[in-house]
Automatic annotation (TrEMBL):
Residues 43-361 form the GP-PDE domain. It catalyses: a sn-glycero-3-phosphodiester + H2O = an alcohol + sn-glycerol 3-phosphate + H(+). GO terms for cellular component: vacuole. One of its GO terms (molecular function) is glycerophosphodiester phosphodiesterase activity. GO terms for biological process: glycerol metabolic process; lipid metabolic process. Pfam families: GDPD. The keyword Manganese does not apply. The keyword Hydrolase applies. It is an enzyme of class 3 (hydrolase). Transmembrane segments: none annotated. Keywords: Glycerol metabolism, Hydrolase, Signal. Residues 1-20 form the signal peptide. This is glycerophosphodiester phosphodiesterase.
Length: 375
């Protein structure tokens, strides 16, 4: 009897193991039926560094969670290791969002570099090989967010990030940023005279990303390329027809490459120039609607003027915490979403809390089968 039970248990175990679904697939494997298309009938839900209100930013866990919660696009920042591997990481230093301080083997690796006019001391990503970066683990940027996942997830590559989007059961767009290109090109050298932007575009081409905005191919593999550096966007315009977004910082700040203030590059004259290369802008929220002492001021005409130049507007960053929601919204992110979508008329929102934005849009403008393309 004991032998018979053992045999039956073994057969059951084999059946369960063989029939279990993989939790992660490589690109192009496992999704043979047509994917649910990208929605284009309402503003895009842009997962800012993934669902980083819940998981450490730019990790596979944050991106997968944001897809599950309904993100239209998953956004990332692309930097490079010392040996030229493109990785997903926001800061040029590793100090804030990794556990590098716990790695005694790297104790002597701090450096001081000039980054966009600021002298910064820290552990710079460009001073570490990809093999060394793989030993680090991510941690939550903000102390008031959930800390239980600190130390559990590694840094991922640009390729891994793309794979996560491609393996989704529906069409999920990617939204990578050419991050700090002046700094990266100064400290990392690639073979054959290539520069950061070349390697960035080559990676997208390797996975089949191409096509102008709303083209048939683009809708299958949606992608926006973003950068605060206008010269990078102009440079790649002859290398890819993928739509590009020019990021806009505080009006007093300067672009890292052309050294123009962001006030200058939001003029009508500059929009006339840059719209030949980009389909939209990504401004900070307070650049569009200023705030003083956490109170909203009169909106600028930035959205209206951008739309007059046929440029989309994707503002950043929407966060659920009270520190980031102005008093007029009564600590309610849904009231804030309503203001930006229905009053300001933006075309997409970068949010740390993808699920909240998705719920708001489902309740106020639910998708239906065959939703039409946005004009």
């Amino acid at each position: 009897m004991t032998t018979l039970c053992t045999i039956l248990f073994t057969l059951l175990l084999l059946f369960v193991c063989c029939s279990a679904r993989r939790t992660y697939l490589f690109p192009g494997i496992g999704h043979k039926s047509p994917k649910q298309p990208l929605q284009t009938s309402r503003p895009f839900n842009l997962a800012h560094r993934g669902s980083n209100g819940e998981f450490p930013e730019e990790t596979a866990a944050a991106y997968r969670r944001s897809i599950k919660e309904g993100a239209d696009f998953i956004e990332t920042d692309i930097l490079s290791s010392k040996d030229g591997v493109l990785v997903c990481h926001h800061d040029v230093i590793l100090d804030i969002t990794t556990d590098i301080a716990e790695h005694k083997e790297f104790a002597g690796r701090q450096r001081a570099y000039d980054v966009q006019g600021f002298n910064i001391t820290g552990f710079f990503i460009v001073d570490f090989t990809w093999k060394e970066l793989q030993t680090l683990r991510a941690k939550q940027r903000f102390s008031f967010r959930d800390q239980q996942y600190n130390g559990k997830f590694p840094i991922i590559t640009f390729d891994e990030y793309i794979s996560i989007a491609l393996d989704a059961s529906r069409a999920v767009g990617i939204y990578p940023e050419i991050k700090d290109p002046v700094f990266i090109n100064e400290h990392v050298k690639w073979p054959n005279g290539k520069r950061f932007e070349d390697v960035f575009v080559d990676t997208l081409k390797k996975y089949g990303y191409r096509g102008s905005y709303l083209s048939k191919h683009w809708l299958k593999q949606p992608c926006f390329i973003q950068s605060f550096a206008p010269s990078s966007l102009v440079y790649i315009s002859s290398k890819t027809d993928l739509p590009k977004i020019f990021l806009i910082g505080h009006t007093a700040w300067q672009t890292e490459d052309t050294k123009q203030t962001f006030l200058e590059v939001t003029s009508d004259a500059y929009f006339n120039y840059i719209k030949k290369y980009v389909v939209g802008i990504g401004p900070g929220k307070d650049t569009v609607v200023p705030a003083v002492n956490n109170h909203l001021q009169a909106p600028t005409d930035l959205v209206v003027r951008a739309h007059a130049h046929s440029l989309q507007v994707h503002p950043y960053t929407f966060r659920n915490e009270y520190q980031y929601i102005h008093f007029e919204f009564h600590q309610d992110p849904y009231i804030e979403f309503d203001f930006w979508i229905n009053k300001m008329g933006v075309d997409g929102l970068f949010t740390d809390f993808t699920g909240s934005l998705h719920d708001f849009q489902e309740w106020t403008s639910p998708l239906s089968p065959g939703n039409g393309e946005r004009p």
